[in-house]
């Protein structure tokens, strides 16, 4: 079976469709605790700086002009563009604090602006933010880094895309979710195909290295036929990557979702039909399933990294630069530095108070143990490459695999009987029919999963 031929067994998926982490980190964010301090982070940064190497930067811009009812992101919904000014001043204060901890010569191989809606900022503010970043960190000027930004096409015209290219961005990720007018109205995100196409075409004209499009299945009024029509339009845009996310309806946790009527949501059977048809459609269109809900063209760096065994995973999802320590700035952002994870305070007032007092705005975090390192490596190998070499693990970590992971192997036995995985003394291999359920496979190796509240996570499918 070729790399892209992923079978879809609805009955099997229905049996395994539980809730679980997406493993953008291990331990996951629910293990972060407020006993982690600024002093712990500073010690970790010193450890990172002693080792050296390139950095990855993340900047969180929380503002949105309107609220999308499905959204579960940390955001501030406002039409007052003036609110960006004091927030940027606070980000610059944090940037000065953070950059003082790292050697000025460490190149920034990866940069990402997320949100919220980063293009909520004015053109002058975006120029300023990139310039300030370059004053504090060693940004690459030869277009060799992976510098990406999340785009809402309703907030970015051709002039905006040209500006982003000018200041150094070379990858964009576009939120689309669905082109169906009824779906768009139901989730308060009315976005035309034409304005989306303008952004994509301008990005091509400006020689952006890649365009990614995000879709969501499980939204109100969606059906298989309607979603296939959206995919027809998306393929016209010829994106390099596609993310097809499952909508998790949790109105008790996310207030905007209360505006979505539960009766308008597709049934579980319809959702599975949408997913199965989407996989077949994208395979026929030539895309490779990278993992879970991510697809890419065969010549995309993610697909190449997966074939070459170098694909990684971090808070931005699948990555070719996860070996970099990630310094994240802005409210709610999560850093991964020197063997620790840390998260900034989420509220803007608390963030402001910390940075104006000269403190890193850290709210919580966790130090990674030796056992975490082992299990993170196992989970990363499985979620990125669908194969785990048992002798390699035993040699690298000096463990007896069968003894150390006896509980995990017991859990995987049922999956082996269902032909999701094969287990030999040499390797664990995720079979094509198990790739959509890779989060289930990884959960078997998650030391914390049995103690976690399933409501904190989305459904795996």
TrEMBL record:
Role: Involved in the heme biosynthesis. Catalyzes the anaerobic oxidative decarboxylation of propionate groups of rings A and B of coproporphyrinogen III to yield the vinyl groups in protoporphyrinogen IX.
Cofactor, how bound (note): Binds 1 [4Fe-4S] cluster. The cluster is coordinated with 3 cysteines and an exchangeable S-adenosyl-L-methionine.
Source species of the chain: Guyparkeria halophila
Record keyword Oxidoreductase present: yes
Subcellular location: Cytoplasm
Pathway(s) served: Porphyrin-containing compound metabolism; protoporphyrin-IX biosynthesis; protoporphyrinogen-IX from coproporphyrinogen-III (AdoMet route): step 1/1
Enzyme class: oxidoreductase
Pfam assignment, any one: Radical_SAM
Name of this protein: Coproporphyrinogen-III oxidase
Entry annotated with the keyword Transmembrane helix: no
InterPro entries xref list: Coprogen_oxidase_HemN, Coproporphyrinogen-III_oxidase, Elp3/MiaA/NifB-like_rSAM, HemN_C, rSAM, rSAM_horseshoe, rSAM_sf
GO terms, molecular function: coproporphyrinogen dehydrogenase activity
């Amino acid at each position: 079976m070729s790399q892209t031929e992923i079978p879809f067994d609805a009955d099997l998926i229905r049996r395994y469709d539980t809730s679980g982490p997406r493993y953008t980190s291990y331990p996951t964010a629910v293990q972060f605790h407020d006993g982690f301090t600024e002093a712990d982070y500073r010690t970790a940064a010193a450890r990172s700086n002693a080792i050296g190497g390139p950095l990855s930067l993340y900047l969180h811009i929380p503002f949105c002009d309107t609220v999308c009812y499905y959204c579960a992101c940390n955001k501030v919904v406002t039409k007052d563009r003036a609110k960006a000014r004091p927030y940027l001043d606070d980000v610059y204060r944090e940037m000065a604090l953070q950059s003082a901890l790292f050697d000025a010569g460490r190149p920034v191989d990866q940069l990402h602006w997320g949100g919220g809606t980063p293009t909520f900022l004015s053109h002058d503010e975006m120029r300023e933010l990139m310039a300030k970043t370059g004053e504090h960190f060693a940004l690459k000027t030869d277009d060799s880094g992976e510098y990406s930004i999340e785009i809402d096409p309703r907030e970015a015209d051709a002039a905006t895309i040209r500006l982003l290219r000018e200041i150094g961005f070379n990858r964009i990720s576009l939120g689309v979710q669905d082109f169906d007018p009824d779906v768009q109205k139901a989730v308060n995100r009315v976005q035309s195909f034409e304005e989306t196409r303008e952004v994509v075409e301008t990005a091509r004209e400006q020689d952006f290295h890649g365009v990614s499009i995000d879709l969501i299945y499980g939204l109100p009024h969606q059906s298989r036929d309607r979603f296939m029509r959206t995919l027809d339009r998306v393929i016209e845009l010829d994106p390099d990557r596609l993310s097809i996310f499952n909508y998790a309806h949790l109105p008790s946790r996310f207030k905007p979702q209360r505006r979505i009527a539960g009766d308008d949501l597709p049934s579980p059977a319809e959702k599975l039909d949408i997913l199965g048809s989407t996989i077949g459609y994208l395979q026929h269109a030539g895309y490779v399933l990278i993992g879970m809900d991510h697809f890419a063209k065969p010549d995309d760096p993610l697909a190449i990294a997966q074939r070459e065994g170098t694909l990684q995973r971090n808070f931005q999802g699948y990555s070719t630069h996860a070996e970099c320590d990630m310094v994240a700035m802005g409210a709610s952002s999560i850093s991964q530095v020197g063997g620790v994870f840390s998260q900034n305070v989420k509220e803007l007032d608390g963030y402001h108070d910390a940075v104006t007092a000269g403190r890193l705005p850290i709210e919580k975090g966790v130090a990674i143990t030796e056992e975490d390192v082992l299990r993170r490596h196992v989970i990363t190998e499985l979620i990125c490459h669908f194969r785990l070499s048992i002798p390699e693990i035993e040699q690298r970590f000096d463990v007896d695999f069968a003894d150390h992971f006896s509980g995990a192997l017991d859990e995987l036995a049922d999956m082996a009987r269902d032909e999701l995985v094969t287990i030999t003394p040499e390797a664990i291999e995720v079979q094509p029919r198990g790739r959509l359920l890779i989060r289930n496979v990884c959960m078997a190796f998650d030391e914390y999963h049995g103690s976690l509240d399933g409501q904190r996570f989305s459904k795996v499918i």
